[in-house]
Amino acid sequence: MSEDQTTRCGFVALIGAPNAGKSTLLNALVGAKVSIVSRKVQTTRAQVRGIALHGAAQIIFVDTPGIFAPKRRLDRAMVTSAWGGASDADVVCLLIDARKGVDEEARTILEKLAQTTRRRTLALNKIDTIENTQLLALAKEINELCSFEETFMISALHGYGVERLKEKLAGMMKPGPWLYPEDQISDAPLRSLAAEITREKIFERLHDELPYQITVETDQWKNQPDGSARIEQTIYVTREGHRKIVLGEGGRTIKSIGSAARKDIAEAAEQKVHLFLFVKVRENWIDDPERYREMGLDFPRE
Questions:
Q1: What torsion do the CA atoms of 267, 11, 212, 102 make, to the nearest 10 degrees?
Q2: Summary mean pLDDT of the chain
Q3: Residue 126: its pLDDT value, please?
Q4: C-alpha–C-alpha distance, residues 266 and 14, integer Å
Q5: By the 8 A CB rule, do 185 and 34 touch?
Q6: Nearest to 201 by CA among 264, 157, 249
Q7: Which of 102, 169, 184, 293 has its CA 20 to 30 A from that of 245?
Q8: Is residue 302 part of a domain?
Q9: What is the mean pLDDT of residues 216-244?
Q10: What percent of the residues of the chain are helix, what percent strand, and what percent coil, each to the nearest 5?
Q11: Is residue 38 within 8 Å of residue 200, measured between CB atoms?
Q12: 130-182 per-position pLDDT tens digit
């Protein structure tokens, strides 16, 4: 960055229904893995911040939980977190799965978003899956329900249109100093990111066998004299049957999960990792305020 450039900085909230592709887009915008990705809905639970640079602008992206009709306490906490991220941001970027179009979830989000005063942009994702004529009609339909400053056609998975989106968002940031060092890509502590990585590997390995009410906590991160890290994590499930599924016959499943998680955690931490996983049954963890604090969520009292 040249010295005569005025720095710019701001927050962009990525919002949308579950599985719209927000976490995939965040990772593409930042250029590194800062948010976990899964085919299972409601994977992202709390706000995840990813930091990207474009010219003199520093953009702090906030990946929010998918917005859906909440039925349980954890659902309510996640949806509250998502709308909180949107209300605190300088710009809201709504991501809509172009294949699904304006379904009930998208319509509910659009109706509420239309009532806000935040600057808004629209990103139609997964555009490689439908015809161009359908895309144009979808963009028109959405903008009639809620007006957006600009509409972007993207494929977060394949990177199409992502740089243009980042460039435009950078131009929307206000003049001001950067809030993070130039080389920082996330504000998530490594302990939290490590727990999320392990949770992602559980979903990848057991995506249809477990409910999403499973959580992972990093209990210990101890740097060793040889430069490696000894990490202990606990996987909390709500039933003994789920614990057996995570462990697998002869412990094969938990070993597979640990091996995959260890690789990604080591890459994120830039050091060798010794990962030890434990599985515990905690039937009522979903009603435990402490678990919500660990996940970075406010505990709904009702």
A1: -130
A2: 84
A3: 94
A4: 27
A5: yes
A6: 264
A7: 293
A8: no
A9: 92
A10: 40, 25, 35
A11: yes
A12: 998 999 999 999 999 999 999 999 999 999 999 999 999 999 999 999 998 89
Same domain, residue pair 254 and 129: no
Query: Which pLDDT score is estimated for 12?
Result: 92
Q: Does 154 lie in the same domain as 60?
A: yes
pLDDT tens-digit profile of 24-35? Answer: 898 899 887 776
Within this chain, do residues 208 and 244 fall inside the same structural domain, yes or no? yes
Residues 142 and 217 in one domain: no
Exposure class string for 66-105: b at 16+ Cβ within 10 A, else e: bbbeeeebbbbbbbebbbbbbeebbbbbbbbbbebbeeeb
* Encoded tokens for 98: 């172009």
Token pair 């957006």 in the structure block, residue: 148
Asked whether residue 135 falls in the same domain as residue 65, the answer is yes
Q: Retrieve residue 284's tokens.
A: 């009522």
pLDDT for position 139: 95
pLDDT tens readout for residues 257-287? 999 999 999 988 889 999 999 999 988 766 7
Residue located via tokens 């940031």: 173
pTM above 0.85, yes or no: no
